[in-house]
Design goal:
This protein is of the alpha/beta class. It is 50% helix and 6% strand. It is built from 21 helices and five strands. The protein has a five-stranded parallel beta sheet. The longest helix is centred in the C-terminal third of the chain and has 21 residues. The chain is elongated and about 100 Å long.
């Protein structure tokens, strides 16, 4: 049996000379797929299935331009399955029914079908459920491709019948291999200096298809001398970063920003802030999250953090983009470098929980409002100690409902301004204990 996984040089072109370069470079065996050895290599999940000659249904999850469609086609060839491809963008229920009926007819003739569904996450839940009986009875081996997190976008029932295989964005070495193959196919080197070649690879942002298309553009022009990085930047566009405001990339980056600030890393915090704003995120959305952070993760360890965030909001409202984004960056850096405490956050959650558990208990009589004579006659406000009348400005009274013991909800940390709060609270507790004695 031929080694399906050993890297080989691309085969001689079989397409027309004017076919797109990406088509001419498309791998013909799994060993030519770059950057996904963890799946397609002999020890990878796909490699093992091919070696055994039997495929299970699978979901290929990864960024654009990482080889999902190519791998699906090569899988069908490797285990001798009929290959059928549909796109969820252009297909509906009628197309699915037709594909399943044809697959069943071919199965009766002894030929199994690999059904490749591109952008499978775009099918709605009911349409996804329609795959289940045909996957279960073996009418088709389903290979779905998605750029979105399957946990969010695909039915649990479908996920339980398919392996989720994660494709990695192509790294510098893998993208360099693609350029080597492009140069071999074209019979000439790209008109780039070494630094410009590296810059071109970086600009692809892990997308092999984008990189090959950029290379094809360069091959199509006659340049008097190789381009340097500045010349390349002027000649070609960078790939726009993958970022969907309502999908996983959005939540991954806001999570990274929040955790970098919590970890007191201002450099990483500013980087993730830039990633979101450069990709087109709404600046006020990011600032709202930073403002929330100021209360949740800093709180009274540095009360100025919340003030800084609200000032940044006023500055952005006044200046707009891009000038006002500097105020957002300032708020981000302030929060990242501030002392941290989640004591206020923890206290709020504990207080809300206690309030739900204790229901409608009345406060003690001494702190009830008594605006009428009747209320005074029945004891409202009786015995109230006015704290300002004491020597320490602290009466030490009990303010809790008589039916429950005092609870400790807020415990300040020994950092930042909260260290002073903790000292103040300890002093009051000492006074309270003396008066109880």
């Amino acid at each position: 049996m031929a080694d399906l996984f050993a890297p080989q040089d691309p085969p001689a072109p079989v397409l027309a000379a004017n076919a797109p370069l990406a088509d001419r470079l498309r791998p013909t065996i799994l060993g030519q797929v770059v950057g996904q050895d963890h799946l397609t290599g002999a020890e990878g999940a796909i490699g093992r299935m091919v070696a055994a000659g039997r495929l299970s249904s699978m979901i290929l999850w990864g960024p654009p331009g990482t080889g999902k469609t190519t791998i699906a086609r090569l899988l069908a060839d490797a285990v001798d399955l009929r290959f059928v491809a549909i796109s969820a963008v252009f297909s509906g229920v009628a197309d699915l029914k037709k594909a399943f009926a044809e697959a069943r007819d071919h199965a009766r003739l002894g030929k199994s079908t690999l059904l490749f569904v591109d952008e499978i996450h775009r099918f709605n839940r009911a349409q996804q459920d329609g795959f289940l009986p045909y996957v279960e009875d073996g009418t088709v081996t389903l290979v779905g491709a998605t750029t979105e997190n399957p946990s969010f976008e695909l039915n649990a029932a479908l996920l339980s019948r398919a392996q989720v295989l994660i494709l990695q964005r192509l790294d510098h070495a893998a993208l360099g291999q693609l350029l080597d193959r492009a140069e071999a196919e074209m019979g000439t080197a790209l008109p780039l200096t070494a630094d410009a070649r590296d810059a071109m690879i970086a600009s692809a942002d892990g997308d092999g298809r984008f990189l090959i298309n950029q290379a094809e553009t360069l091959f199509s022009v006659n340049l008097p001398q190789p381009l340097n990085p500045a010349g390349l930047s002027a000649f070609l566009q960078r790939r726009v970063a993958v970022y969907d405001k309502d999908r996983e990339g959005h939540y991954n980056l806001i999570s990274a920003l929040h955790k970098s600030m919590r970890g007191s890393d201002p450099q990483a915090s500013l980087y993730y802030l830039a990633r979101m704003l450069v990709a087109g995120e709404e600046p006020l959305y990011v600032l709202r999250r930073i403002t929330r952070f100021a209360s949740e993760d800093i709180g009274l360890a540095d009360p100025q953090a919340l003030v800084q965030c609200l000032a940044a909001k006023d500055a952005y409202d006044f200046l707009g983009s891009p000038e006002g984004e500097l105020a957002i960056a300032q708020a981000c850096l302030y929060c990242a470098t501030a002392p941290k405490s989640n004591a206020a956050y923890a206290a709020q959650k504990a207080a809300w929980k206690l309030a739900r558990e204790t229901g409608s208990l009345m406060p003690p009589d001494n702190i009830l409002n008594a605006p009428t004579k009747l209320m005074k006659d029945i004891g409202y406000g009786k015995g109230y100690a006015y704290d300002h009348d004491t020597a320490e400005g602290f009466s030490g009274s009990n303010y809790w409902p008589p039916q429950m013991a005092p609870a400790t909800l807020y415990t300040p940390v020994d950092r930042g301004f909260e260290k002073r709060i903790a000292e103040r609270m300890a002093y009051w507790n000492t006074l309270r204990t003396k008066r109880d004695d």
